[in-house]
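Re: that chain you flagged

S.,

Sorry for the slow reply, it's been a week of failed gels. I finally had a moment to sit down with the sequence you sent. For the record, here it is as I used it:
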Amino acid sequence: GLLTVCTSVARAASMQSAEKEEFREYLEHSGVIDSLTKVLVGLYEQKSKPTDPVDFIKARLGVGNEEEVNMLRKENEDLKKANAELLKQIETLTKERDDLKSNAEK
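Prediction finished late last night. Pasting the structure tokens below so you have them in one place:
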């Protein structure tokens, strides 16, 4: 009856408490708590508070907005293409140099 219900509630509360403690330890050991604390202290210490504190937190944690991420992806692709072209030029020039050397030796 009532004793069984109370025992079940107490056991569930105890399990939740243990799970919460385990999660807290996980956050502490992984450095999440320290990182969040530093960001929040930085927000607190701002003389003029940002209009969007979430953007402030994201910026401090290194989370870019979607537009910025897309721009960086495009830039990365462009740089990869430019790098591939330069590698081809190096290969072509190296071959030309080697051909000139072998012709000069003849």
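What I noticed first: Helices lie at 2-29, 32-45, 53-61, 66-105.

Talk soon,
D.
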